[in-house]
UniProtKB/TrEMBL annotation:
Taxonomic placement: Eukaryota, Sar, Stramenopiles, Ochrophyta, Pelagophyceae
Record-level GO BP terms: mitochondrial transmembrane transport
Listed name of the protein: Mitochondrial carrier protein
Keywords linked to the UniProt accession: Membrane, Mitochondrion, Mitochondrion inner membrane, Repeat, Transmembrane, Transmembrane helix, Transport
Solcar repeat positions: 6-88, 91-173
Length: 182
């Protein structure tokens, strides 16, 4: 007999804590990636050295406010939405795929604006996430915060749907059985 899934509030709490810890731990890596993509810095080592020299250690954490204040709830929303969609749609690969895409669509409503603010903070050196958010709204409007929603959803929605469809099929046994599929 399969274990009953945990209540959604447990999923929400666990995914919130997991998101917070992973965002804080990995944000410096994301900052380096964003800086290298937005500028013509040579190597990872050069980017790290330039950031330390010009901004100090705090430079690696620009945009962390936006990433955690809204990003943590977005991560929690993603996992909780996935569980809710999965319970509604039922079990099976197609249901898991649709639940993954649906969860990504819901989470992107929150995550895309956060990502826009985070990346602009990392690259353009705003003093705070709030300053960046306010400036983008004032100069470019709300639509600027959602620039890239469609392509983000296509990319991450496809990934999320396929990820969950395969994960849910492979997880029960911990093995892959290709003969059953043939």
């Amino acid at each position: 007999m399969a274990d009953a899934p945990p209540p959604l509030h447990i999923t929400l709490a666990a995914s919130s804590m997991s998101s917070l810890v992973s965002r804080v731990a990995c944000h410096p890596l994301d900052t380096i990636k964003s800086k290298m993509q937005a500028t013509s810095r040579g190597s990872v080592t050069t980017c790290i050295a330039d950031t330390l020299k010009k901004e100090g250690a705090r430079g690696f954490y620009r945009g962390l406010g936006a990433a955690t204040i809204i990003g943590v709830p977005a991560g929690a929303l993603y996992f909780t939405s996935y569980e809710a969609f999965k319970r509604r749609l039922g079990d099976g690969p197609a249901s898991h795929l649709l639940a993954g895409v649906g969860a990504e669509a819901v989470a992107c409503i929150v995550f895309v604006p956060v990502d826009v603010v985070k990346e602009r903070c990392q690259v353009h050196g705003y003093t705070s996430s709030y300053e960046c958010f306010r400036t983008v709204l004032k100069k470019e409007g709300v639509q600027a915060l959602y620039r890239g929603y469609g392509p983000t959803l296509y990319s991450f929605g496809a990934f999320s749907g396929l990820y969950w469809a395969f994960y849910e099929q492979l997880r029960p046994s911990g093995t892959v059985s290709f003969s059953a599929a043939l």
